[in-house]
Amino acid sequence: MKYSAIILAAGSGKRMQSSVKKQYMEILGRPLIYYALHAFEMSRVDEIVLVVSPGDEEYVRRDIVERYGFKKVSAIVPGGAERYDSVYEGLKAVGGQYVLIHDGARAFLHNEIIERCIDDVERYRASVVGMPSKDTVKIVDAGGFVVDTPNRALVWNIQTPQCFETKLIREAHALLQAHPDSTITDDAMVVERLTEVPVHLIEGDYENVKVTTPDDIRTAESILKSRGF
């Protein structure tokens, strides 16, 4: 079996309030995207497809992939206008029977999560990492009034990687390209809405969060130091 990973690093990172794109900002002396690449490089994933902002391909190849010696990166491709467009471009380049799709801003991925993804997706065809919500969640109407309070035991916060049989997710994304839907925010929703395959949730890690705002930098440094970086 061959396993592919797509790492998404095509965002602008506006909430980071920096002149440097978030994925290239240095944390502990290395660009943010380094840490997701390192996790997959050290795993049993066979290849990595890196999706970057159009025009950044040569910079990423020279200053990140070659500089840090990432051998599993098989392709660096330009992303699209929306997240799902970027995923679709990445899917065109993968060669594995299964694919793990990961946000490059989630710097705290570790091999135990990757292993759980691989084991689970072979059984269920669509497996998504997340964690049970620690907070009570409210559903509100357009006016901001509460209309429902879901059972917290059934509410999960979704993370990445999101893992799929490649044929399944590629066909689902092709349908989405034919009928774009701006309300779709992750790959699990693509499968939920455009296929009949149920998505299985597996536990990730409460530390597997996205680096999004300047306040997250200090948290990132602390977590990465605790892991030996």
How would you summarize the topology of this molecule?
Layout: E1 3-9, E2 26-27, E3 30-31, H1 32-41, E4 47-52, H2 57-66, E5 73-78, H3 83-93, E6 98-103, H4 111-124, E7 126-132, E8 139-140, E9 146-148, E10 156-165, H5 166-178, H6 187-194, E11 200-203, H7 215-226
Parallel strand pairs: 1-4, 1-6, 4-5, 7-11
Antiparallel strand pairs: 2-3, 6-10, 7-10, 8-9
Explain this structure.
With 229 residues, this protein is of the alpha/beta class. It has helices at residues 32-41, 57-66, 83-93, 111-124, 166-178, 187-194, 215-226; strands at 3-9, 26-27, 30-31, 47-52, 73-78, 98-103, 126-132, 139-140, 146-148, 156-165, 200-203. It has one domain: Spore Coat Polysaccharide Biosynthesis Protein SpsA, Chain A (Alpha-Beta Complex). The strands form three sheets. Strands 5-4-1-6-10-7-11 form a seven-stranded mixed β-sheet, sandwiched between helices. A two-stranded antiparallel sheet has the order 2-3. Strand 2 and strand 3 form a beta hairpin. Helix 3 (83-93) packs across helix 5 (166-178) and helix 5 packs across helix 6 (187-194). The longest helix is centred in the middle third of the chain and has 14 residues, at 111-124. It starts with a strand and ends with a helix.
